[in-house]
Amino acid sequence: MVLLLVRVCTDLGGDFLMTGKKVLVLGGGFGGVRAAISARAALDSDHEVTIVDRNRMPHLCGMNPLLIVGERETNKTGRSLGRLANRGIKFVEANIDLIDTDAQNVATSAGTLDYDYLVVALGAAYDWDAVPGARDAYSFYDFDYARQLRRRLSRLKRGKIVLAASKPPYKCPPAPFETTMIINWWARKKGIRKDIDISVYIPEPGPLGVAGKEASMRVRSALDQRGIELITEAGVTEVSTDGREASFTDGSSTSASIIATIPVHRLPDVVAASGIANGKPWVPVDRATLETSTANVFAIGDVNVVPSGDFAIPKAGVFAAGQGTKVGEVIASRVNDSNAPEPYDGVGFCFMAYSGGRAATVGGEFLADGGPDTVLTDPSVAGNRSKERFERDWRSFKI
């Protein structure tokens, strides 16, 4: 026997049946998955939770620094979104073609999906063509690019390695510094460090500005101790066709054996076309609920902007996950007509590995009064164990 739960409404002049609500989540990254799990856990089974992503098997880009030096296997950096069915969440593998907030539906390559509540968690798109030559150069911000860089590094015996960011914001602010320190550790382990020069170019005045001056100085010191050259206020503007020379905003240029860029991040086209960003570079949201200017449409993770003092909440997986959990709670409270949850708190962190065996965290309360209240911990073996546990938890959908 099937029990159908309904609500009888009489305020429109007659009785009619209200079916369960439809929660539609676009994007299967940190934020999207947590939003779906959070909403599903708090809603009765007559309500539907669906997640859409073009990739059934997304990969954890936080593993890429170790992947490129052969310390992570390519077949162990992903998780299957199909497993969400075990939690009562429907997964649709499809491209997202159009978001229509007026009609409350989303056109996909698998058909049109209606919604009552929409969560946009499509992340940041990479504009490889914003920096001429970057598309054909190396990178570690994309899984396929990271595998190409892995193959190139495995053949390297001597030369210069340059990691170069173009302009902020970019995902996981510690990534350029973590990656150069991982490469330093790998080169020492291989016995080729004395024959390798490592440089990192960034457009900002210093590393990890959002974490404060002390953290920034400590990262500078860590790079210097390892013989890694840091060049600030020098975003990459062009990479030569042979991939061996790069130019920068400060007017300088350099030659290298390997040039790996961090691509320009931008709003995905389908999100920009939806109008929920109101013409802004990133989607503005209510700081407490992550709701956009369109009712019952939420934007979480890299696709949004949440101001934090002179900065913004970093574009990083843990923050997206926290926002996803909060949005799931907000949606459930509205569907269930229950008390609204506490406002989003902006608490989160990023791991930053200093080697294959030691890692630190940088994080704290990014929406604290007066600006971000953050701490950079000392790198430690225990910190690295926490990082490895985080990776395992991500693969099993605990994060």
The percent range for helix content is 10-25%
Rg over CA atoms: 22 Å
* Major β-sheet strand ordering: 5-4-3-9-20
Proportion of β residues?
25-35%
Number of strand segments: 26
**Unreliable stretches, pLDDT < 50, 5 or more residues?**
1-17
Architecture overview:
The N terminus is likely disordered. The protein has a five-stranded parallel beta sheet with strand order 5-4-3-9-20, covered by helices on one side. Strand 15 and strand 16 form a beta hairpin. The protein contains eight helices and 26 strands. The chain has 399 residues and is of the alpha/beta class. Helix 1 runs parallel beside helix 7. It starts with 6 loop residues before the first strand and ends with a helix. The chain has two domains: 157 residues, FAD/NAD(P)-binding domain (3-Layer(bba) Sandwich); 139 residues, FAD/NAD(P)-binding domain. It is 25% helix and 27% strand.
Keywords:
single chain; 399 residues; alpha/beta; FAD/NAD(P)-binding domain; 2 domains; five-stranded parallel β-sheet; four-stranded parallel β-sheet; 26 strands; 25% helix; 27% strand; disordered N terminus
Secondary-structure map:
Layout: E1 7-9, E2 16-18, E3 22-26, H1 30-42, E4 48-53, H2 64-67, E5 90-93, E6 96-100, E7 105-108, E8 111-114, E9 117-120, E10 125-127, H3 143-155, E11 159-165, H4 175-190, E12 196-201, H5 213-225, E13 228-231, E14 236-239, E15 245-248, E16 253-255, E17 258-262, E18 264-266, H6 269-274, E19 283-284, E20 297-299, E21 304-305, E22 307-308, E23 311-312, H7 317-335, E24 347-353, E25 359-365, E26 373-376, H8 381-395
Parallel strand pairs: 3-4, 3-9, 4-5, 9-20, 11-12, 11-17, 12-13, 19-21
Antiparallel strand pairs: 1-2, 6-7, 7-8, 10-18, 14-15, 15-16, 22-23, 24-25, 25-26
